[in-house]
TrEMBL record:
CDD domains: AdoMet_MTases. It comes from Amycolatopsis japonica. Keywords: Methyltransferase, Transferase. It comes from the Bacteria. This is Methyltransferase. One of its GO terms (biological process) is methylation.
Length: 354
């Protein structure tokens, strides 16, 4: 093991998750033991791998085993341990030559996948192997797509945009009776899957918002693939200007801190998006219109939120519940007790004066 040479030490750091390049980076190859690699990574040292590519993957797996398991621990302890695990595994690095060429023996061609995420590159760089594998995997999902039965077609997620692999929330939007076919807002659209379902159901105009440019680019590409001519995208924190007779929102389900951009689709500290949606909803929902709020009760099962807190939030925002559609998740990793609900909300009518 040796410190990186001046040439290699000048490599540009690539990341999509905001992590900083380790202050100390040493060059390693197949001669490093897993125990020594773990000791270095756990202490904050980056390991730039210069062996063959399968050896890098084997070392990553060995480091993962040494991180232990968080299974069976309380939720916050699980999150803390997974965060530490991500930091340690993220310190196994691989080099990329100009043009995102992976110079390791038996390494895959990662040029297209990296260009989609990082843009063109004319300089040498270093990237976490764990992140690189995620980038390659996301590229494969983007090419292959995810089959959506409610659409009879595939949605193609981009890197960093939550994939609709849990389809039960899509089924809820596909089966709940529409209050209108004139206009709908889809808040936090992500891949655009819910907006596409509304358009396929005959809603003439759907405005899809998100605060992530990569999500909006993903949604636009999916709308074009599907021929959803009545859909449009808008970068917004929550709502677009104006009112609509139907507003759909599938916010992050768990009020906890996200560790990566992708996790922001699931974790939302203090339920910021949920609260913003409910607080501002009366100003954007047409009188007599419906808002469809889609939430799993997983936060309640984990003790992160009580059902009463959600109902109190409806009350404070001047909303009443018209009805609720429930569905059990089909995903193999879902909690057996979990229920996903579509809450049909409307603004509470003002009292008639005497």
């Amino acid at each position: 093991m040796n410190p990186l040479s001046t040439k290699d030490g000048g490599r540009r750091w690539l990341t999509t998750v905001g992590t900083k390049m380790p202050r100390t980076v040493v060059a390693v190859d197949d001669r490093v033991t897993a125990d020594e690699a773990f000791r270095l990574a756990a202490s904050g040292t980056g390991l730039a791998w210069y062996g063959d590519f399968p050896g890098a993957r084997n070392l990553l797996a060995a480091l993962s085993r040494r991180c232990g398991t968080a299974a069976g621990k309380p939720f916050q302890e699980q999150r803390n341990q997974r965060s530490r695990r991500a930091r340690i595994l993220g310190r196994l690095l691989v080099p990329l030559d100009p043009g995102h060429v992976l110079p390791l023996r038996r390494g895959p061609d990662v040029r297209e996948a990296c260009t989609e995420v990082y843009g063109p590159s004319e300089t040498a760089s270093l990237v976490s192997l764990r992140e690189l594998l995620g980038v390659v995997g996301a590229h494969e999902w983007r090419v292959k797509g995810v089959e959506i039965p409610a659409l009879g077609a595939r949605i193609h997620p981009h890197h960093g945009v939550f994939s609709p692999v849990r389809g039960e929330y899509v089924d809820l939007v596909a089966r709940t009776p529409l209050p209108t076919k004139e206009l709908a807002f889809d808040i936090g659209t992500g891949t655009g899957v819910l907006a596409a379902v509304l358009a396929r159901r005959g809603v003439e105009r759907v405005v899809a918002t998100d605060n992530e440019p990569r999500a909006l680019a993903c949604a636009r590409e999916n709308f074009e693939r599907l021929g959803c001519t009545g859909t449009e995208t808008l970068e917004a924190d929550v709502f677009p200007p104006g009112r609509a007779p139907l507003i759909v929102c599938n916010p992050p389900w768990l009020p906890a801190r996200a560790h990566t951009p992708l996790e922001r689709a699931v974790y939302d500290p203090g339920s910021r998006m949920l609260k913003a949606f409910l607080d501002r909803l009366p100003r954007h929902l047409e009188p007599g219109g419906e808002a469809w709020l889609i939430l799993s009760d997983l936060a309640e099962l984990l003790g992160l939120r009580r059902r009463e807190e959600l109902l109190d939030a409806f009350e404070r925002s001047g909303l009443e519940v018209l009805g609720r559609e429930d569905i059990r998740p089909r995903h193999r990793r879902a909690d057996a007790k979990e229920v996903t609900s579509l809450w049909r909300l409307t603004t509470r009518a003002a009292p008639v004066p005497d």
